[in-house]
Specification:
- Helix content is 67%, strand content 0%.
- With 45 residues, the chain is mainly alpha-helical.
């Protein structure tokens, strides 16, 4: 998992903020493009 690797190298709060920022960006992009969420089944971090 990407978060686990990040936590091994970075402070916990920095990882939490980075993940929250990533989620906010994805949500914004879906709202702007009026798209539904697509599950990234084959995505690799």
């Amino acid at each position: 998992m990407c978060a686990a690797r990040m936590l091994a190298r970075k402070p916990r709060m920095l990882v939490a903020i980075a993940l929250a920022n990533k989620m906010a960006y994805m949500l914004w992009a879906m709202l702007v493009r009026e798209e539904d969420y697509r599950d990234p089944t084959g995505a690799v971090c």
